Fold this sequence. Notes:
By secondary structure, this protein is an alpha/beta fold. It has one domain (about 45-115, about 130-395): Vaccinia Virus protein VP39 (Rossmann fold, 3-Layer(aba) Sandwich), CATH 3.40.50. The chain is about 40% helix and about 15% strand. The radius of gyration is 21 Å and the shape is globular. It comes from Malus domestica (Apple). GO terms for molecular function: metal ion binding; methyltransferase activity. It holds the Pfam family Methyltransf_7. One of its GO terms (biological process) is methylation.
Amino acid sequence: MAEGDRTMLSGSADPMNLNGDHENRAKPVTGPQPMNGGNGTYSYSKNSSYQKESADLEKGKIIEEIEEKLDMKKLSSFSNTICLADLGCSTGPNTFMIIQEILEAMQRKHRSQLSQSCPKADQQYSDDHQMPEFQVFFNDLEANDFNTLFTSLPQDRKYFAAGVPGSFHRRLFPESSIHFVHTSSSLHWISKSPEVLQNKDSPAWNKGRIHYTSAPDEVVDAYAAQFAEDMKNFLNVRATELVLGGMMVMILSGIPKGMPYSEIPAGMLYNCISSSLMDMAKEGIIEESEVDSFNLPYYAASLEEMEEIVEKNGCFKIERMESSNPAAWLQNRPVDIPTLVKHVRAAVEGMFARHFGSEVMDEMFGRVTDKLLDISDLVNSRRDEKSQLLAVLKRK
Length: 396
């Protein structure tokens, strides 16, 4: 989300026609949209370094799991082509960097296993003639800017590349055809916002908010239930697509068990977006009903929630599952609020623009920046919470 991935605005082509007119905003946005495409000021390709740095904190752990747990000899005995999938790839460049690291780790593991079974005199011959070929599938939603993705493919890549459009909440590949799945910054995007949030007669009606941050328990529970349903579906379809012994790595937003989401920087951000939109509604820039009908399809699970969902599925062995601080790479430097907001804008602008109109995006994100700057000390005081999950699973 992976890198995981949501729309083509701000100086780029706009195939989804997100021009903010009444027709485009007739129906509430319920599901995620692609990250901003192109190479413009607010494009994901130019505003995804924070996601990369946070994911890089897990890179050594992923390589360690490949080296210790992935049986390349067994996987390559079934086919001379090893297939990898990056789910939620967006437009790059992050997806290319992590795929290269994973591929090289798999090659090293393959050579290591060969060296244990081949005499040294035959090693070079074995390396040259028994190394499998690699096929990488880059997946994201149908409206993702695959043109930008593929025009920036590394020229010296040692794999075959293909794009696979579609939601990762449903089947994407043939049965038992994938050997390794990677997804980063993607799985916290649920397939849709819970419908009950727009029911005025329900205690889960999320009036005046765009997320479950600072919302009643009924709203939080509705989000949690949708996430659990989506993860159940995700694991079921991946279990069908992965070969036995195949590995899946997932990096996604999380939260310590029992901690209110408003106590971490991301929750503070969503509160600022909600209050900015409500201020704009009071000033007549947008309608208050538009705020009431918008709910960001994003949920951060606790480690315990993830463990329960995976164990209930029963198709995967948990090789590693842990929480970490995604801001550790800052190394005690303060969060650059304007840069953070640009990264957030690159990720979520498509959803907000489709619902509220692209003509108010500068106003909205400008107000959000100002509100976050006003509480920057609070944001920096809570940035070290363990709000990132890493899960390494192996197909049983």
